[in-house]
Task: inverse folding
């Protein structure tokens, strides 16, 4: 039972990590908070909803990835293009917040404020099997597997491809990168595409797990991922993944021990403590955050 | 009917001012919903359980909230900009979960029985807070606030105790939010923890962004417009978040100082822009070639960027 809860926690943690990676990529490269991100995450569930009514499951992932990515490009264009530079961090946060409000409201207009159940899936997803007394659900394995594939892909992209090298260069020294011929706008767009696509896939998987697409998860689950990003260290990819899994497991354990309501608070309390005591993040010795904290 | 609208408008004006007061000293706070909740529950508990009259209870709750804000603000205000946004969001979530778990405050089910706020008391509160703000804006205190907001290092070099000033601004803002919360609770006579959702904190900040941040009329106007217009135009009420979000976006894109910004840029500021114009893109004065980042700012004096959202 306990092992089952830990598995549940890992599954939530994987989704947290996917969303937190998106936040941390944007913070790392642009030094801005993308408050539209939680809403793109939420929209992933609804993209899945539409796709699943007409097409099999694989297509839902495909569409979530691409629609999410395109929304990321849109976010960059509307809420971030005009506000670059270190002085407009707050402005960019506010404009993306406003865009997020619009996205949520449009979703409310199309699908209402209540949860919308997904069309029934083939039984395969909800089949269980057990190894050493622990019950595994195919769905859980799928979430973990998809997350792993996406993360390995992201790792390869960041560390072994030209685009990834450009992203790292831009994160480290934007001016030098631009002077050396990196197309800053394209790289920023790529970062937004990737981060939003990952978030939308996470949203789709959350919808699959709860069998419904919900419009309020942006402000609950999505903002929690922002706190997790801060716990892992702003701009720290590895930190975001580890913190996501850690918080997911802690929440599941608190639920298991009957502290479910207080579990909502753990992330935020952890984030405040980390920001105060170890602002570079739990796992990093990164320079990024130290510079921010005048 | 009309008085209901006016009461809500008045409370929203108070909340917008509470954000504005914190912003005066350069802290953008997303914790106003939490402070409002504390004020509401504290005052409500005093009036229902101890039969304290409305006004003394409200003022006591405001003092209590200010003390709480000072307590959490003292460490949190060391954080700037994005970090402060995150920390105040965290405060909002934590306070809400705490209230949901405190059984003597009704927990998740809600807390009721408060009575005693009407249009008159809201008007008194708005007039009182407005008068204090107006007084401050003509007093030397305003210039101290301005100095701290615009450039902390210069302010510190002039012998201003930055931490104290920022703490005062943050706590005073919390106190005003608590008054608003108390009025809200005693007017609705029943509140639930989700009345003080994070969305409330976000909305209040956006009222201020919409109205403009460099004088006290701006936030009030933002709150009035966004509260009263939807009541009289059905379409606006149906599409409220969309219209509101688009309005804020358009405002930030085309008039980054807000609707009521009358403090014009001086020739000196333009000249300074000419020197290091590439750094100051946020005013929209000088747009750069898209895709080219600004020059590095490491050589210049870092400015407090938790200040006016530009």
Result:
């Amino acid at each position: 039972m306990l092992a089952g809860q830990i598995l549940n926690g890992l599954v939530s943690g994987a989704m947290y990590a996917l969303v937190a990676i998106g936040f941390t990529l944007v913070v790392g490269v642009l030094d801005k908070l993308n408050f539209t991100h939680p809403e793109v995450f939420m929209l992933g569930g609804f993209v899945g909803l539409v796709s699943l009514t007409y097409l099999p499951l694989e297509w839902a992932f495909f569409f979530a990835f691409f629609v999410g990515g395109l929304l990321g490009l849109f976010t960059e264009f509307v809420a971030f293009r005009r506000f670059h530079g270190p002085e407009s961090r707050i402005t960019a946060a506010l404009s993306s917040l406003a865009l997020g409000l619009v996205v949520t409201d449009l979703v409310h207009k199309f699908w209402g404020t209540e949860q919308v159940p997904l069309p029934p899936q083939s039984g395969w997803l909800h089949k269980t099997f057990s190894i050493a007394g622990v019950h595994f659900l195919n769905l859980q394995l799928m979430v973990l597997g998809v997350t792993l594939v996406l993360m390995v892909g992201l790792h390869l992209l960041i560390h072994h491809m030209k685009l990834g090298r450009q992203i790292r260069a831009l994160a480290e020294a934007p001016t030098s990168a631009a002077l050396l011929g990196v197309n800053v706008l394209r790289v920023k767009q790529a970062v937004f595409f990737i981060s939003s696509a990952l978030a939308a896939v996470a949203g789709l998987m959350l919808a699959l797990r709860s069998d419904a697409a919900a419009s309020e998860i942006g402000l609950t689950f999505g903002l929690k991922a922002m706190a997790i990003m801060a716990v892992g260290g702003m701009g720290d990819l590895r930190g975001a993944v580890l913190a996501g899994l850690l918080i997911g497991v802690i929440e599941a354990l608190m639920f298991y021990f009957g502290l479910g309501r207080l579990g909502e608070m753990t992330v935020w309390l952890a984030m405040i403590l980390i920001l105060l005591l170890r602002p570079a993040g739990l796992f990093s010795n990164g320079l990024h955050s130290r510079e921010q904290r005048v | 009917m009309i008085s209901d609208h006016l009461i809500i408008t008045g409370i929203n004006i108070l909340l917008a001012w509470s954000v504005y007061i914190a912003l005066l000293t350069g802290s953008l706070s997303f914790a106003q919903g939490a402070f409002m909740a504390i004020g509401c529950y504290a005052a409500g508990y005093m009036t229902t359980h101890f039969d304290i009259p409305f006004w003394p209870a409200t003022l006591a709750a405001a003092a209590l909230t200010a003390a709480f804000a000072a307590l959490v603000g003292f460490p949190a205000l060391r954080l700037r900009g994005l970090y402060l946004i995150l920390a105040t969001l965290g405060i909002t979530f934590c306070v809400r979960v705490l209230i949901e778990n405190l059984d003597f405050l009704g927990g998740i089910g809600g807390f009721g029985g408060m009575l005693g706020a009407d249009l008159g008391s809201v008007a008194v509160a708005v007039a009182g807070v407005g008068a204090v703000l107006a007084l401050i804006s003509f007093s030397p205190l305003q210039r101290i606030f301005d100095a701290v907001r615009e450039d902390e290092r210069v302010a510190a070099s002039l012998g201003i105790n930055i931490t104290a000033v920022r703490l005062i601004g943050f706590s005073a803002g919390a106190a005003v939010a608590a008054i608003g919360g108390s009025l809200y609770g005693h007017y609705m006579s029943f509140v639930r923890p989700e009345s003080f959702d994070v969305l409330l904190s976000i909305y209040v900040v956006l009222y201020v962004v919409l109205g403009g941040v460099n004088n006290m009329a701006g936030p009030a106007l933002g709150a009035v417009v966004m509260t009263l217009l939807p009541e009289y135009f059905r379409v606006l009420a149906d599409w409220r978040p969309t219209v509101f979000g688009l309005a804020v976006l358009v405002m930030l894109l085309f008039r980054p100082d807000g609707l009521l910004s009358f403090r014009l840029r001086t020739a000196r500021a333009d000249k300074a822009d000419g020197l290091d114009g590439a750094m100051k893109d946020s005013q929209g004065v000088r747009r750069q070639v898209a895709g080219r980042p600004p020059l590095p700012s490491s050589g210049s004096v870092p400015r407090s960027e938790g200040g006016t959202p530009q």
Summary: Chain B has one domain: 2-234. DSSP finds 13 helices and two strands in chain B. Strands of chain B lie at 111-112, 190-191.
